[in-house]
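A further point concerns the way the authors explain their paired sequence and structure data. Showing the layout once, in full, would remove most of the difficulty. For illustration, here is how one protein appears when written out as sequence plus structure tokens:
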Amino acid sequence: MSEAEPKTPGTVDVPTMIGNVAALTHAQNTTLTALSKSVTPMTVAELASELGLHHNSVRETLDALVKRGLVARNRKAPEGRGRPSWVYEAIAPASLESFARQLTSMISALTDYLRENTDDPVKEAVKLGRMWGEEVMLNTGVPDHANIDHAEEAKRLDVHTSKVRLFLSSMGYGAAQTSDPHAFELRHCPLLGAIERGQKAGDKYPLACAMHRGLLEGVLQTTAHGHVGVELKAQVLPGVCSVRLTATEPSDSKPLSE
């Protein structure tokens, strides 16, 4: 990028920004963290002094961050004669923890609303989760497999299990296969804070887990069109849920596992 082409803030969409944050090198993360803590934009010289690095090294790192859309570069306000310096400011968090906190806060507010304003908050949470799953599948361009043979699909539970496990792992749930080829555990729940908040509020079945159940149903409805069911047991261990896929008829409906 040339010196005459500052990066305009807001030109990178959120999914791309998250991917860029996840791909940061140590030097890039250190520089972005320093910028994130500064209440005012910083010059290359100021950053180099704070980080104890050479100006050229800091400038190269900043160019990469600007290119990724994580840092904005603008001219400093004129101060007397001469060309103003470039200044840099962070326009993205330095880690994925910020995105996770935002998601947890949003789900906590949503489950609080369901708990206080619906007669059957678990049922409504499942509905919302199902819509979530269908929306995810729509956005990722997964085709609707409406014309599949149930007998054939029943033989493909291993494939569905692997795909769903990988899908949830990509979302940060730490999905790990168990000895059962059709089951796996969710060992790292990004919404654990919302679950613990619900437990303190008296939830017998965590509403965030009910949303996860609905999420899985929404995904499987698109990929298996009702021929694969899902059983989710919430909090089998602190912070751990178990998921098992089953061959089922499209009309089957199984209750949540307590």
Notes: The first helix runs from residue 14 to 22.
